[in-house]
Structure formats: structure tokens, C-alpha cells
Design goal:
By secondary structure, this protein is an all-alpha fold. The chain contains eleven helices and no strands. The longest helix is centred in the last third of the chain and has 51 residues. The radius of gyration is 22 Å and the shape is globular. The relative contact order is 0.09.
Length: about 260
Amino acid sequence: VRLLQAIVFVPMTSLLFYCMYTWTGFHAITEHNIVKFLLHPYAIILLAIWLLLVLLCIYYELGFYFLQAYYQQKGMPYTFAIIVERLNRKALYFFSAQSLLLVLYLIVLIPLAAFLLPVSLTQQLQLPAFIVDELMHSGSGKAMYTVAIIVLGFVSIRLLFTLPFFIIHPHLTIWASIVQSWHFSRKRLAETVLLLAAVLLVYIVVAFVSVIMLFLPLILIERIVPAAALVVAALTLTALEVLLIMMFTLLQALFSHVIVS
């Protein structure tokens, strides 16, 4: 899934935004021209295509995690082909008007996306800096931003089960999944948040200890054999990057299991 994102999504994103700038005549997007840019017909069409790609990437990545967790917890056999076939059947919803519901859902999740969804792509989503900076210039702006984050955070958590419901249950529509999540989270919200928080806390502690243990040989080498420190530092940083990627992937799997269960 990551490989497909790198091969398809990243180049397509670059191409689409290059076309946006070229076809609309804009060289940069600022707070002064963003409304005019968003109202341009070419920008609307290309942004819609880009949003569809974002939704499909998130859907397939989360789909693999949630379906694998579901099959494992049920003790059911599964293959890569079975998961792909099952995801393909419901991918048709993204080419209907219901996809707009998922766009709104994604916008709601932006402030807390990195914490709520075990997916790599959502961690790159954030509010534009000039919007946040403008709000932070005044006391009323800070209050509005704080209230908005609290409200969006509450709604995000209540809708946390939307994608698992939609992905796992073959006959649920996007809207039905949103309704199911809202009702279901009323009873299981506190339990789910506490479980996710516990998983995250254990992950942070293990990651912190692992990083310290990984750097101990480098600290000793720097004191005993300084000439070899540069080579050891390079190996240490490489090992650290591999370790963090593996640990983040494990965190995604654990989050998926908690949400599905």
C-alpha cells in the first residue's frame, strides 16, 4: 500500500498541483488569493480529482488494517486477494455523491487526524499556517480556535468508527456507517479512548527506551574510540530509522485491532 502511494499518489499530486498553478495562472496560494483560486473552474475540477485520490488512498490503507484485524479476531482465513476484492466492491461509493460525506468527515478529522486514524497519509494533513496564525493574533481568535478544536475533537471521536463500520460491513452505506458510529460511540467512547491512550502511552515508553538503548553504544564509542564514532553514528541513525518505521507500523496495527474489537 505504501509503495502504491509512493508510485501513484505522490506523482499524481505533484502533477495535479502543477496543472492547477499552470492552468489557473497562480504562482502561489496566500490568504489574499485563496478564495479566487478555489473559485476557478480548473482548480475546482483538479482539487476534486485530488480529493478523490486522497480518499481512495486512506480507504485502501485503512481497509487493509481493519479487515486484517477483523479476520484475525474472528479466526477466519484470508489472503491479499480476498482483501483487495472486498475493498474494490465498496470503492464504487467513492464515485457517488456519498463521497462528499467522506470529504466532510476528512475535514473534521484534520486537527486530530494523526492521533485518531492509524494511517500514514492523514499525518500529512494540517490546517494552512496562515489561517492558524491569523486566529492566534487576538484573544477572541484564540478562544474561537480552542472551542473549534474541542468541538471538532468531540465529533471526530464520536465518528471514529465510521470507516471500520463501512469497511467491515458489506451492505452499509457511508451515511449508514456515520449514523452507526454516532450511536455506537455513545456507549463505548470512554472505553475506546482509554484503550487507545493506553496503547499510545506504552508505545511512547517503549520507543523512548529503545532509542536510548540504541544510542548507548554510540556514546561509549565516542569516549573510547572517537575515530570510529562517525561510522557508528551513521549505522545508529540508519538502525533508528528502521526501528521507528517498524514501531509506527506496529502502532497502526494495534490501533486497528483496538478499534475493530
